[in-house]
TrEMBL record:
Organism name: Halosimplex carlsbadense 2-9-1
Name the UniProt record assigns to this protein: Indole-3-glycerol phosphate synthase
Sorted UniProt keywords: Amino-acid biosynthesis, Aromatic amino acid biosynthesis, Decarboxylase, Lyase, Tryptophan biosynthesis
Stretches for region Disordered: 253-276
PROSITE patterns assigned: IGPS
Gene: trpC
Amino acid sequence: MRSILDAARERAAAREGASDERIDADAQSLTEAFERAEADGRVPVIAEVKPTSPTTDGERTDDPVELAESMVAGGAAALSVLTEPEHFGGSTDALERIRAAVDVPVLRKDFVVREAQLDAVEADVLLLIVRFLDEEGTDDLADLLTAARERGFQVLVEAHTASEVERALGAGAEIVGVNNRDLAKLEVDLETFETVATEVPENVTLIAESGIATTNDALAMREAGADALLVGSAIVDAAGGSDVEANTRRLVTAESDATAETAADADTDAEADTQS
């Protein structure tokens, strides 16, 4: 299979000259969605709809709209929808259907390397990945960020290292995601976020991505400064079943669950003291 970057370059080349129609996105605010979740006592979670990925076996065959609706019912503040077809089984059609069915912001997650790809489908938020830009055959990050905003998109700029965060901020990113997964090795280390997050100023919305499997992981990312979490496999493929709504709710109520566990422990300790 071709590399993700090579496949992205080929799709970009196919789009160039194929259509002159330019997207004019009517976008819901991602940051306001996070604020609403916080006000409701929920951890702001972007739940991800993806049929498959290079790090998973098999393919999820559920209706993506039903998955998305279950995630929203479980309290997701926003959704991420894969549109990359070759490695993740995604499609722009699935994003269109999902966005029409839900009332939360939808992030288009793809490997956008040329401006022509911006016009593939309307979304509320667009992903740009630092490591795949400013290379041969790709556009400049700052130029793409500007072009996306001109179309009405909000933009999540993804980084993995401190130097990539610096590039994102230098290009004018207002929403930065720190991916705990090294896209070169496909390895996950949650300490990545805890280390790199310190490079992001408080006025920038900060999202922790990948590897968040448990409520403890969610709490750790929040304590390290994450304004929101982007979660995929832990919701769709969580151990113990595939109840997407329940898996989403488990993560978005992570703080209250932890409080409840502490209270339960305190009650147990008090009962033990009484009996001793």
